Amino acid sequence: MGRRGTTESLGNLVAALLQRRAYARPLALSGLRQAWLRAAGERLASRSRVAALRDGVLTIEVASSAQCYELEAFRARQLLGALQADPDAQGIRRLVFRVGNPPS
Q1: Which of 7-16, 19-28, 57-66 has the highest mean pLDDT?
Q2: Which of 63, 83, 97, 104 is the most exposed place for a label (fewest CB within 10 A)?
Q3: Strand partners, 50
Q4: Res. 24 pLDDT band, cuts 50 70 90
Q5: In the chain, what are the domains?
């Protein structure tokens, strides 16, 4: 194995540690927030927030159950399509909306 093999192994170890410790998560969510802004538009994005991404499921928090229902029933497919086409949001398979604490 020489020096190169050792360096690659160390790089893989550090990447795994960062992922396990969730240091990379804020960076990934930052890109998703930008993708959400582009997909949802400024008006909707200002009343919601990207809460989490896990196993291809993007969770968006909204202010009310009425808004949650509206997004699930009428806009989810369109928003998911826009996100899937965005290079900052690769790997999203599904959107989930929940009532939470979005920005005011």
Answers
A1: 57-66
A2: 104
A3: 60
A4: very low
A5: 25-99 (3.30.300)
* CA separation for the pair 100, 98 (Å, rounded): 6
User: Which residues are bridge partners to 94 per DSSP?
Assistant: 57
Instruction: Count Cβ atoms below 10 Å from residue 79 Cβ, excluding itself.
Output: 20
Q: Which helix (H) or strand (E) holds 98?
A: strand 94-99
Structure tokens at 31: 């890109």
Q: Is residue 100 within 8 Å of residue 62, measured between CB atoms? A: yes
Position 102 confidence tier, pLDDT thresholds 50, 70, 90: confident
**Consecutive H or E run containing 32:** helix 25-45
26 contact partners, CB below 8 Å, separation of at least 6: none
Cβ atoms < 10 Å from Cβ of 59: 16
